[in-house]
Structure formats: structure tokens, C-alpha cells
Amino acid sequence: MTRGAGLDIGLVVAGHGRHYAVETPEGRRLICHPRGKKSDCVVGDRVRWLATGAAEGVIEHLEPRRNLLFRQDAWKTKSFAANIDQLLVLVAADPMFGESQLARALIAAESAGIAACILLNKADLPQFAAARARLEPYAAMGVPVLEAALKARPDAARESLGPRLAGKATLVLGPSGSGKSTLINLLAPGAQAQVGEVSRALNTGRHTTTATQWYWLDAARTTALIDSPGFQEFGLRQLDPTELAGCMPDLRPYVTACKFYNCSHRHEPGCGVLAALERGEIDAARHRIYRELWDELT
Asked: What does pTM read for this prediction?
């Protein structure tokens, strides 16, 4: 029998330190602590728990994950979200987004087997056309690029995003100023109340607002947004450098044309990727990002 099979199952919707907010299938939330010293649960995890009080419990078992995403800083890489159905990368016409951050998020999703799309916000601004042009290589490689004006045209945004999000758990990532808070509050009107409720339960005050959090968008709890800060620290160190080109859809088709099986696609003779770059079939900015990430991973 699987460990914890006879125990109640729950969904981790927030966490701080060794305190986790776990939601039962009926929608009740309680605070759970992991058994032992190790604390490796993340938002999106399914866990088996045992009650220790009216609104408290202990996590006895972590269910197998479908996928796992990481963030990193100068010292370490740490997991932060699991069992995600899709990634929504939110960028804006102003301030102009960094392509390196965008590429990093899409590569992480690809390596974890998570579908991804881009939402370009602030369609009402004059800078929008230039931002749209910068995203053309991503659309060409098959990444869906959605457009919206979250503040100027909220009803239209809600209507267009609804079918894309329905029935899925979607992780939203975006740099400061992209409109992430606007999106969360537009689609999950009770978001601030949920933050306050979980924050009080975890007894962490304002700290919970800077942590990953799960929000239900419908009463039936079939559609969710997961908000997580720290776009710049999106982690890729779990990748081997040799896996990098395979996680970039515009480079991947040319890898098989390389003369050497261990080609780094940076300087080797007979490289299919470099040949495609010379022919203009790979965007120069995308190859520059590839080289930067290769250097980082090595």
C-alpha cells in the first residue's frame, strides 16, 4: 500500500517556512507542518495529512508530482511550484520587458513539460506596436501570444482570457510594472481577502504577500491562478547545458544537422544551429540569449 494511502489528501495553497496552508477537497483550509526536519513542499503539491487539532495537521506524505518549477538566487536553487498545467508570462508595452527573462521562463516551462503562453499587456499605449514586434520570433516558434489592455479594457480582457484559463492551474509570472496585480485582482476578485486569510493563519503578516499563492477563480474550484514573485530569479540550474537547445523551439530543429554529437552550437564547424543563424532562420537575439544561458549553466 502507498504510504499515507489511508490519510486525508489536501492541496498546498501557500507556505511560509515550515507552515503550509493545506486545502481539503471540500474547500476547508488548515495549517499543516511537515513531519521531521525536512520542509520540501511547494504550492500545488498534493499531500496526505493527519489532523492534530481543529484547524491544524501534520503532513505525512507528499504525492508524486507531474512537474516542478524552480527559482534561484546567487547562492541556491529552490523549488516553488508543482503540478502546473500552464505558464502565463505577462509582459507589457511599457516598461519594456527583458527578453532574457522571458526566454528563461519559457525554457523552464519547456524543460518541465508545461505549456506556455505570453500575454502582452497595455495594448492601449503607443509603445504597443514595438513590443508586439519584439514578440514576433516567439509567435513564429509556436508560442501563443495574447494581447490585452487589463486596465483600459478589463471586460474584454476577462472575456478573452477565460477560455484560455478554464479548467487549468495557471502560473502567472511577470516583471514589475507588467500588470500582474491588476490581472490577479481582475480574474480573482477575492484575491486580497485570500492573502489576508492565509497570512493570518500562517501568522506571517505581510511576508505571505511575497510568497507563491494559489487562487481559485470559480466557485467549483476547477480554474486557478498561481501568483509568484521574483521573475528575475526564475531558475534554470537544474538543466544540463546540453539540454538547453532542445528546450528552445527555434533552435531545436537544427540540432540534428550538427556534425558533432556534443556540439555546443557556439563555435563548432559543421554546426546546424550556426548555419541556420547565418541563413537568418534563427533570430540573432535568441542565439545571444542561448549563449548567455550556456555560459551561466557551465
From this structure: 0.89
